[in-house]
Amino acid sequence: MIRLILAVTYLFLFLILGIPVLLAEWLIGKRNPGLKARSSKAVVSWGFRCIAVFTGTKVIVRGRENIPIDTAALFVGNHRSYFDIVLTCPVFPNVTGYVAKAEMRKWPLLSSWMRNIHCLFLDRDNIKEGLKTILTGVEEVKSGTSICIFPEGTRNKVNDTFLPFHEGSFKIAEKGGVPVIPMTIINSAAVFEDHLPWIRKTTVVIDFGEPIYLKELDKSVRKNLGTYVSGVISERYFQLKEEFNL
């Protein structure tokens, strides 16, 4: 109970007390949009690290060497928890926006920070608007900003399973000419979702797999990228579960 109260209270204070910082970021962005994105990413990452501390979550990161330093990338991960974003954002070495549900645009202050780090808001019920969002993502990666997406489309509520990966999720990498980085997240639901409404101390593993360059794949594989990447993440998922006994 104490961890839940600390996390919620901290988030509320971060958003309220961070209003002057948002204003400063807005002013910075008028002269230097790149600096605004980098500084906002640093602030958000710091805030998320504090939440991880308050929740007692230990994060183990594997495969940092697989993250390319000379190009943007599309990070593709499995999705079991609200904490997936909280725990992965500080791990990314550069500015990385998330593809989030369109409803997140309605959250005051939080949506402002999301825009600052180049998050995209996807309306899955509107095909035309969804296409515009994907095309925006293509331009983002072409300009050097990485994007993170959870192709299952929603949080999977069953441990040790995977929902189908939507094929359209990979258009950003395909059209943007950037690699796909499989991102396997282990045990994140143990922070909160496995025992709602309580938050409990736990260990979460985040593993970055080797880059997948779509042009190097056979045509048959490229036609079923969702299945292929899901298989890569699934295989790594169970390897890590056994290694860490989670």
What report would you give on this structure?
This protein has 246 residues and is of the alpha/beta class. The chain has helices spanning 2-17, 19-31, 33-55, 83-88, 110-116, 127-142, 171-176, 219-222, 225-244, and strands at residues 57-62, 74-77, 96-101, 120-122, 146-149, 180-186, 202-208. The chain has a seven-stranded mixed sheet with strand order 1-7-6-2-5-3-4, with helices on both faces. The longest helix is centred in the N-terminal third of the chain and has 23 residues, at 33-55. The protein is globular, with a radius of gyration of 18 Å. The chain starts with a helix and ends with a helix.
What order do the SSEs take from the amino end to the carboxyl end, as H and E?
HHHEEHEHEHEHEEHH
The rounded distance between the terminal residues' Cα atoms is: 23 Å
The main pleated sheet reads as: 7 strands, mixed
Rg calculated over all Cα atoms: 18 Å
Give me the side-by-side strand order of the main sheet: 1-7-6-2-5-3-4
Average pLDDT, rounded to a whole number, is 95
The residue fraction in helices comes out at: 40-55%
Tally of DSSP β-strands = 7
How much strand content do the residues show?
15-25%
Structural class estimated from helices and strands: alpha/beta
Weakly predicted, low-confidence segments: none
* Net shape: globular
Number of H- or I-type helical stretches: 9
Summarize this entry quickly.
This protein has 246 residues and is of the alpha/beta class. It has nine helices and seven strands, in the order H-H-H-E-E-H-E-H-E-H-E-H-E-E-H-H.
